[in-house]
Specification:
- With 471 residues, the chain is mainly alpha-helical.
- It has 3 domains: 128 residues, 3-Layer(aba) Sandwich (Rossmann fold); 126 residues, Serine Threonine Protein Phosphatase 5, Tetratricopeptide repeat; 168 residues, DNA Cyclobutane Dipyrimidine Photolyase, subunit A, domain 3 (Orthogonal Bundle).
- Helices cover 47% and strands 6% of the residues.
- The chain is globular, with a radius of gyration of 23 Å.
């Protein structure tokens, strides 16, 4: 039987992989990975995410070797080179076609459309699969036939129309007969602009992903609703990097919840239901990328915010990036991000809203900074979260909702434990004083005064948004 190519992208796993299962059902498979390092770097992917992806490909190759599936590796400079590279591989291997799982940002859609055209012109088949979502974009629409721009009705429709078939796990291929094609040696990453974090913080591959899911459900899942907002508590799943690159599937996560929650995703244990809601948010943002492609063009979802008068404030932006705004919860969170490649979800909202509202700095600068540092940097979720915080996106926080960093800190880190961990200069202060350190208590401690007054910053942001309404 002729070979089939399986193109891996952000689906670095052999279990529950719809494209791989479909390809294997047709006969022998040869796997392909295209590393588009210059393209990814031009689009803001930083060292942490690139290193995690590279280690994920190593783990994938090892898993494929157990199935006798060789992995061929090619470097390209730009997505535009993908069709030619894949066609060349098809000719080299004698493959009759190619399987892949869809990706939803605009550049990825255009790349795949060009690839499908090139293969069709060459008389070869391509088969795309919707693997990272329960519903393909366009399947869930409003009563008017539009894409959802608000999460709650989307989630209700998602739960209402969900079937067991949509959550069925794809069959893991059995080991195939050797193809006679050897896997390519995987190149190491070239020296990057910034050295990545220690990879032991985020071990790559399906095994570590499955371990984290098991530990989360066993020890923290049922407490998720109550603990997820407290950064000093390890209350979240920490699966976002693995979901971003498909080292675990949303179906594997949801099936595990069904097994723990009496076969229900929408009712039952409050912690598990809340976590399911976060998985649905991830899917929602993928639908938004397809239904509202302007968000993939550096534009706000809320068109009327195009003219918002953002401030040019390089000094303020640098203080935010470096964790020296004088607001401890913001500074501790930013230092956590730079040191670990990850930031607690509650803190992502606080820091993003501080940049966009307190400093009135364009949210796109913050979005790009996150992408350069996050190990789980993924366009749809990152863009959606930033636009929500800046009141420019879907389900956007009302423009007048502006988190007070100090009260957020007091509420979600009441003993200042997280602050003391990341701001050791404040660790000697009384716990209650860490949230807004009085200057007289700081003494010789090197910690900056707040770079902006909360009340004044709030008033400035409200005026900027009100000016949009007046235009």
């Amino acid at each position: 039987m002729p070979l089939t190519l399986m193109w891996f992208r952000s689906d670095l796993r052999v279990h529950d992989n719809r494209a791989l299962a479909a390809a294997a059902a047709r006969g022998p498979v040869v796997a392909v990975f295209l590393r588009a390092l210059p393209h990814w770097q031009r689009h803001g992917h930083g060292a942490n995410a690139l290193d995690f992806r590279a280690r994920g490909v190593v783990a994938l190759q090892e898993a494929l070797a157990g199935l006798n599936i060789p992995l061929l590796h090619r470097d390209i400079d730009d997505f535009a080179e993908a069709p030619a590279a894949l066609l060349a591989l098809a000719r080299e291997t004698g493959a009759s076609g190619l399987h892949f799982n869809h990706e939803y940002p605009l550049d990825e859609q255009r790349r795949d459309a060009a690839m499908a055209t090139a293969f069709r012109n060459a008389g070869l088949e391509t088969h795309g699969h919707h693997d990272s979502v329960a519903f393909a974009p366009g399947e869930l629409l409003t009563g008017k036939g539009d894409y959802y721009g608000v999460f709650t009705p989307f989630a209700k429709s998602w739960h209402r129309q969900l079937t067991a078939q949509r959550l069925a796990l794809a069959e893991t291929p059995a080991p195939q007969a050797p193809t006679g094609i050897a896997s390519d040696p995987l190149p190491t990453l070239p020296e990057l602009e910034k050295a990545p974090i220690d990879g032991r913080q985020w071990p790559a591959g399906e095994g570590p992903a499955a371990d984290r899911l098991e530990r989360f459900l066993r020890f923290r899942g049922r407490h998720y609703a109550k603990q997820r907002d407290f950064p000093a508590i390890r209350g979240t799943s920490e699966l976002s990097p693995y979901l971003a690159l498909g080292m675990i599937s949303h179906r594997q996560c949801l099936q595990a919840v069904l097994a723990e929650n009496d076969a229900s995703l929408a009712e039952g244990d409050a912690g598990l239901v809340a976590w399911v809601n976060e998985l649905v948010w991830r899917e929602f943002y993928r639908h938004v990328a397809v239904g509202f492609p302007r968000v993939c063009r550096y534009r706000p979802f809320q068109a009327h915010t195009e003219g918002l008068a953002w401030r040019d404030d390089d000094a303020g932006f640098a203080a935010w990036c470096e964790g020296r705004t004088g607001y401890p919860i913001v500074d501790a969170a930013m230092r956590q991000l730079v040191a670990t490649g990850w930031m607690h979800n509650r803190l992502r909202m606080i820091t993003a809203m501080f940049l966009a509202k307190h400093l009135l700095i364009d949210w796109r600068r913050g979005e790009a900074f996150f992408m350069r540092h996050l190990v789980d940097g993924e366009f749809c979720a990152n863009n959606g979260g930033w636009q929500w915080a800046a009141s420019t996106g879907t389900d956007a926080a009302p423009y007048f909702r502006i988190f007070n960093p100090t009260t957020q800190s007091q509420r979600f880190d009441p003993e200042g434990t997280f602050l003391a961990e990341w701001l050791p200069a404040l660790a000697e202060l009384p716990a209650k004083a860490r949230h807004a350190p009085p200057r007289d208590l700081l003494g010789g401690v090197d910690y900056p005064a707040p770079i902006v007054d909360h009340k004044a910053a709030r008033a400035r942001a409200l005026d900027a948004f009100k000016a949009l309404k007046a235009d």
